[in-house]
Each structure stands twice: as C-alpha cells, then as structure tokens.
Design brief:
626 residues, Rossmann fold, 18 helices, disordered N terminus
C-alpha cells in the first residue's frame, strides 16, 4: 500500500515548485507547492489525490504563515503557448512591486480529460482540501476557461479570494465579477489581423490559420471562422485543427507565394501530440509563407508583426494591481481595456519575405534591424574623427608656426643683411674720411716737417725732425691700413681675387706666417654682397689664425662653383675646443656665421686642440651686382 501511494504521488507530481527545494523552508520568489493537472483515471484520482495532498501541503503551509499566498490558474501546463510567458512575467512583476514574501501555487485546468462538470468539481475539491487551513490571498487567471472556473466555484473554496483576470474582450462582462476583482482586457479581432497582412501583401489569396485540437484552440478557431466569413470571396481560408504535426508540416511547406499564415496557438495536434519546441518555432521552420500573429510575445520568434495584443503591458499592470490588493489597498480601475499596440514589425521577417517597408502603416516601429556601420562603431568613428581632427589642427598649428618662424627667420635675415650693409656703409664712410682727410693731413705734416729741416742749421734739430717725419709716415701708413681694413675698396674696384692677394701680402709684410693662396677663375664682376661676404670670412679666419692660433702656415682656397663661391681657410695653429667656444661665444665666429647665413649660405668650422682649424663656406652669388 505504501509503495502504491509513493508511485501515485510521483504521477500527480505534488510537492515543491522547484526540484530539490525544502518543503519546510519556503523562500521569497519560489513556488512552495505546484498542483499538477490530474491525468489518471478519474476514479483513481478521486480516491488517491486528496490523501496525497495533505502531507506535503501541511508541512509547507506551517512555514509559510507570514507569506502571502497567490494561486495561479492555467488552462494548460505553463509551457503551452504564451501562458507560460504571461505567468512568469506576472510572478516576477508581483514580487517586484509587492516587496514582501509570496508563496505561489499553480494549478493547470487541463480540459482534455473527463467530462467538464466532473473534472471541474474534482479540481474544486482539491482546492477546498488544500486551502482549508489557509485560503489564498489572491487568484490570477489567464484566459476564459480558468476565469469561468473561478467565477463558478469561488463560493465553495475557502477565502473567496479576489481575482485578477486577463482575457480578450467580449468573453465575459463586469457583471460576472465581484467587488475587489481586477480585470485587464485586450481588444482584438481576427479581421484586423487580416487587414494588416493584406496591406503588406495585397496579392494574398490563401490563408492558413494555425490552431491545435484542444477545446480552447477549437473555440478560438471557430471564432476566427465566424469573423473571417466576410473575406470568403477574397481569400480561401484553411484551418489546421484536424491536422497532425506531420500533415501540418507538409501543408506549410507546400504553400505558394500568394499564401499567408496566421498563427494562433498550437498546443497539441489532432493526434494529441505537442511540438517538441514551441508551436511557433515548428510553424516558422516549416512555413513557405510569411507568418502573422496576435501576441507581442511572439514578435522576434517568427511572426512578421503588426498591431499586437500588449500582453507584457497587461501583465505588468495586473501585477501592480495585485500588489495593491496584497497590501490591502483599493484598486480604482478594476476594469481596464487595452487597445492594440502601435504597429511593430520584425525587420528580419520583412527582409526574409521581401515585404516593402514603404507599405508599413505610418508610425510603425521596426525592431531587430541589424545595426548600421554608424550604430555599431559610432563611438570608434567619433573617436577616430576626433583624433584625425586634432591631428589636423596640430598639423595646421605647426604649419602656421613654421610659417611664422620662417617669416621671422626671413625677417631676421633681412635685418642682418641691412645691419651688415649699414655696418659696411659706416665703415666705408670712416675709411673714406681716414683716407681722404686724415691721411692727407698727416702726409702734409710730414712734408712741412721736412721743409723745416732744410731751413734749420742745427744738427740736433735735424735729427728730431727726421724722427718726426718717420713717425708721421708710419702713422699715415697705419691710418691707411686701418682705412683699408675698414673697407677694402679693392673688392669693389678690382675684384675679390686682387683684394685677397693684397690682404695676404699685407699680412706677410707684418708677420712671418707663410700664406698660400689658391684662387680660381673668378670674374671681377660678381655680386658685391657675395664678394664682400667671402672676403670678410677669409679675412676674419686669417686674422684669427695669425693673432690667436699662432699658426705658421695658412692655406686659402677660393673658387666659383656654378652660382656659388666656395672658400676654405686652413691653418696649423693650436686649434680650439668647439663645444667650449660655442658655449662661451665668439664674436668673430658668430660674425662669420651671421654673414654667410644672411646670404643664404652655409659655414662649417672644424677645429681640434693642437691640430689646427679649417673654415669652409659656400656663398650664393646673389645680391646687388653694383
């Protein structure tokens, strides 16, 4: 007897909602007890089920006295059609909005066994026995069969708990309900769905309406047939209640391009077999025509879309009302009707069946569209563009800075040329005054001293006058030499080659340095500024070798190479440390470099302590030729 009881308990599957849950430790958000539809022979159920219900139910309820009890009535098992999705959403939303512990109980009113009156009486007796000690605080029912059941039997079940009902419009009225009940109704008509898909596919001439063979599905199909009778001349309409899954698959696979499929429910086929997955998944895989449906839960699972019943919105709204009831609060809008939602479509199905988006109703929403390149990589594109723009701005800024710097350098170069020109002009004036005025006056004094000597008869006086004449001659020569060094007029008068030879000869006259000059074929008429620049560089390098380096030998080379003058001055003097001299600064070296760079040329100085110095320069033949 004990073995038989255990087997029957497993068959009717009484016990915790979640496998493995402890019956004496209910937790918020779990289902302490699940009541399953009775599938045994009616006589065996009537005898055994009440006995099996008592033991596990008593243990659980003894620990759940502080939890609010909610009974969920289903037409079929929770995995059938959209019922499972609705119930799951309701439980989660109710827990979220209530905030306290809730014990959920689920009972499936399977209408496929036994006589309706006998079956419903049995279910009512199970509920009376189960909730004898503690009635439910709230009942939630989706669809007409469980709503009608509770309306008919609520007086015989302890507590007479308030009802939250979800259903389509037209199946019952507010008079069927009591104070405290809440109803959420959705408007729907099959003709609206036909109008939706005819708008998108006006050439449709054949419609397959998919419903299974359960009493609920047959009732829905009958309602659809009555509403769609007006389309009989435009459409040939076919219902699938009497087809097996195999027959339905073959029929869907053979549909023509002028066909469409309306999916309602597919819980079981004509042979009582349920699809392994969902009925919609089965239909989508087999169908050779686009599928239209009624529920928002089906969007994204195979239907094209349209104006859909907003079951998600209804469920959340019902859960808010249920939370208010559990808190003892009144619900103002007990009877509330929801219109069909804004047309919404699945982009993948539109694309699959080649439906023109321009045919969609105004204001339609398209979901599941693959993100565009911009939508996928907008952040990266913006970041990359920002980096490119920033780099562009930096490049522009650098170009502007370079331009300004170049302009400044050009201005500095022009200023240097002007300063050098002014410097040379001033030297020219001073040299002219020394040569034309002071030199002549000194020469005249020397002549006057000589004439005084001839007139004098004193020997001592003659000697002093002789010495005076010699000093005056030397001073005159020094003044002449200073005048020449201030401004070598020979460069302008006889050319740079002659001027350099005269300069070398002058240095030989006053020193013992050996100077070797190699002067190439250089025209006399070359740009004055270029010639004077080369002359000043050679002059400065030669003076440095004599005065500072203590050189014994100096080599000077000058030649014309195309449109440039190339010069080199080498000596065997003591040399110097280039880094130290550059750090301390040198007026002579800086002057040479400024002259050459002002002309747009280049200057190179190579020196090593104890190994002499070499000065090289390239001077462009540009500037004034006069």
């Amino acid at each position: 007897m004990d073995t038989d009881k255990s087997n029957e308990y497993q068959q009717v599957q009484l016990g915790p909602f979640s496998p493995g849950a402890e019956p004496d430790c209910p937790r918020r958000g779990t289902d302490p007890i699940r009541l399953r539809p009775v599938s045994l022979q009616l006589l065996r159920v009537l005898v055994i089920a009440p006995i099996l219900l008592l033991a596990p139910a008593t243990n659980v309820l003894s620990q759940a006295t502080e939890s609010r009890q909610v009974l969920i009535l289903n037409t079929y098992n929770e995995g059938a059609g959209v019922f499972g999705r609705v119930n799951e959403s309701f439980r989660k939303a109710l827990e979220r909005h209530y905030g306290g512990p809730i014990a959920f109980y689920s009972l499936n009113l399977d209408d496929q066994w036994g006589e309706p009156n006998v079956r419903e009486e049995l279910v009512a007796q199970l509920l009376r026995d189960h909730f004898a000690d503690r009635p439910p605080d709230l009942v939630f029912a989706v669809g007409y069969p469980p709503i009608r059941f509770w309306i008919n039997y609520r007086d015989s079940i302890p507590g007479q708990a308030p009802l939250i009902a979800l259903n389509r419009e037209g199946l019952f009225s507010p008079e069927d309900l009591r104070s405290g009940d809440v109803t959420r109704i959705t408007r729907f008509s099959f003709s609206d769905k036909v109008d939706d898909f005819l708008r998108l596919r006006p050439r449709t001439s054949h419609l397959v309406v998919v419903f299974g063979s359960t009493p609920l599905e047959r009732a829905a199909a009958a309602q659809a047939e009555r509403e769609l009778a007006a389309y009989s001349e435009q459409l040939s309409i076919e219902f699938t209640n009497d087809m097996t899954l195999h027959e339905l698959q073959g029929r869907l696979e053979g549909l023509s391009e002028e066909s469409a499929v309306y999916f309602g429910l597919l819980i079981t086929d004509a042979a009582g077999v349920s699809p392994q997955d969902s009925g919609l998944s089965f239909t989508r895989l087999a169908s050779a025509a686009p599928i239209f449906g009624a529920f928002d839960y089906h969007l994204g699972q195979g239907i094209v879309g349209g104006r859909l019943m907003q079951l998600k919105q209804l469920t959340v709204d019902a859960a808010k009302a249920g939370a208010a009831i559990l808190r003892g609060e009144a619900v103002d809008d007990a009877w509330k009707i929801f219109e069909l939602g804004t047309p919404v479509y699945d982009w993948r199905e539109l694309n699959r069946w080649g439906i023109d988006i321009d045919r969609l109703p105004a204001g339609s929403e398209i979901r599941y569209r693959p993100p565009s390149l911009w939508e996928q990589y907008a952040n990266w594109i913006i970041l990359t563009a920002a980096v490119v723009v920033l780099q562009g701005l930096l490049i522009v800024a650098l170009a502007i800075q370079r331009r300004h710097r170049h302009a400044a350098e050009l201005g500095q170069k022009k200023l240097s040329i002007k300063l050098i020109d002014a410097y040379e002009d001033e030297r020219r004036k001073i040299a002219g005054e020394l040569h034309d005025d002071l030199s002549h006056r000194l020469a005249r004094l020397a002549i006057d001293a000589g004439m005084i000597g001839h007139d004098s008869n004193s020997g001592a006086l003659d000697q002093e006058l002789k010495n005076l004449r010699e000093d005056l001659a030397r001073v005159s020569e020094d003044v002449h030499d200073i005048s020449y060094r201030l401004h070598p007029s020979l460069v302008e008068d006889l050319g740079i080659s002659t001027a350099l030879q005269a300069e070398c000869q002058r240095v030989r006259k006053y020193t013992d340095v050996t100077i070797k000059e190699q002067l190439g074929e250089i025209p006399q008429r070359i740009p004055k500024n270029a010639a004077l620049c080369a002359y000043r560089v050679i002059q400065e390098a030669q003076n440095n070798a004599v005065r500072h380096a203590g050189a014994d030998n100096i080599e000077i080379a000058l030649e014309k190479d195309g449109q440039t003058l190339k010069l080199k001055v080498s000596d065997d003097g003591r040399g110097f440390d280039e880094a130290r001299v550059a750090a301390n600064g040198s007026i002579g070296l800086s002057s040479m470099r400024e002259r050459v760079e002002a002309m747009g040329g280049t200057l190179s100085i190579q020196s090593t302590p104890g190994a002499g110095t070499t000065v090289s320069a390239v001077v462009p033949l540009t500037g004034d030729n006069t």
